[in-house]
Design brief:
The structure is a homodimer of 212-residue chains.
Chain A lengths: L8 H19 L4 E2 L1 H8 L3 H9 L5 E2 L3 E3 H12 L5 E6 L3 H9 L7 E8 L8 E2 L2 E5 L3 H8 L3 E4 L3 H13 L4 E4 L13 E4 L2 H16 L1
Parallel strand pairs in A: 4-5, 4-8, 5-7, 8-9, 9-10
Antiparallel strand pairs in A: 1-3, 2-3, 6-7
The first copy, chain A, binds a DNA duplex (30 and 30 nucleotides) through helix 3 and strand 2.
Chain lengths: 212, 212
DNA sequence: TCTATACTGTCAATTATTTAACAAACTTGT
DNA sequence: ACAAGTTTGTTAAATAATTGACAGTATAGA
């Protein structure tokens, strides 16, 4: 358990994008594709694609290229898209609702098992087939259902407290949309931060830089 | 115009995070901070922080460190947070609404000037003080108001078409939430892709990798 | 004022990532 | 079956990013 991945995060982060383009190709009826052509379509180098894929095995064939359907399936396996990682969302405001509604968890290796919020006006309502519960129910729910992953769609101010509580309830994996930096000093956690405002500010910088 | 940035994207992407931590420190009443302590708090190396900041100038002082308020202001300037880049949102579903409501554009160097959607049930309603207009009004609006940036919160299926139209209306900068890859073959565009499902799949991979 | 200590800016070394190059292996058409 | 043309997997080279080291300059306390 907890063996360190040999594959660099840079490579892993490209996998979903490969998967996306391969799905597109499959839908378009393509049987095979060379690293060269895929590189062209995706705006990468052929070398990088071959290098990336070879981290996981030799899926291609000289003189032929890659079988689209097969390669797509391989990446599906690598990403574990048919897993069912039990996941809860904390905070069901606009953002939480958008995430719950848009994400198609079942196609990404997750299953949404709980929604939690403090707003009495929305408790009891359903989003994506899951009922919104009070934060007071969180502890009991976690003990009974043992979710492993939490999606944080809560304001910065309460993030630290909620996060500590979730950790104490056995949750170690976080998809964090809150404006707060998780896991700086807790190396046991697995955290994917989505800092939207950071992304926006980066865009702003690049726009101004370009106009100089 | 269009001079290439000397500073690497890796560095630029860290700036908003520095800004965030410095704002926190300021709020806590801290006057000064050394690269060593900041590194500790942020989970980085002191060397990296000094290296990063020095891309933009020598903001620190030997034997003293960095003045929190001053450094924060400098980064604010670098990121251009008091600019007013005119921006529209295309697609005002859950996600578009979440983005419109949460982002505090004025504090990030942007100003939200228009909202567009095709759903007749929401056209005419206000979100964050801006009225939702029909997509039919887009052309006229762009000619009159010349927004430079668009935020795409639309499904993949219509993304390509909408995007082409926006480009023809003079928009070159995109904050793209749609499940579609912009700018592979258009180097003139400035694009920040936010592929949430890619992020989720990456998290999934890392969780499984860790459980091995 | 002087001395010990702290800390930056910068250059050098290390590590990571990307790109290039090519032999080996397959495909395709004759 | 053979020759010409493709395309991979893999090694090597090049580039980029991060970390380490330290001279120089400031601070702080006696």
């Amino acid at each position: 358990m907890a063996s360190k991945s040999q594959v660099s995060l840079s490579v892993v982060r490209r996998l979903p994008r490969y998967y996306r383009f391969l799905s597109e190709l499959k839908r378009a009826g393509r049987d095979r594709i060379s690293s060269r052509e895929l590189a062209k379509i995706m705006g990468l180098t052929a070398s990088q694609i071959r290098q990336d894929l070879n981290c996981f095995g030799g899926f291609g064939q000289q003189g032929y290229g890659y079988n689209v359907t097969l390669l797509r399936e391989q990446i599906e396996n690598i990403l574990g898209l048919d897993d069912k990682i039990s996941t809860i969302i904390i905070g069901v405001g606009n953002l939480g609702r958008a995430v719950a509604a848009h994400m198609d968890f079942e196609k990404r290796g997750f299953v949404l098992t709980g929604l939690f919020d403090n707003d009495v006006d929305i408790i009891g309502k359903f989003v994506s087939g899951v009922v919104i519960q009070s934060m007071d129910s969180l502890e009991k729910f976690c003990e009974e259902n043992k979710p492993t992953t939490a999606i944080l769609c809560i304001p910065k101010t309460v993030a630290k407290g909620v996060c500590d509580k979730l950790i104490s309830l056995g949750i170690k994996c976080f998809w964090n949309f809150s404006h707060y930096d998780l896991s700086v000093d807790n190396p046991d956690l697995i955290v994917e931060n989505v800092h939207l405002s950071d992304s926006l500010m980066t865009l702003g910088y690049r726009i101004k830089e370009n106009n100089k």
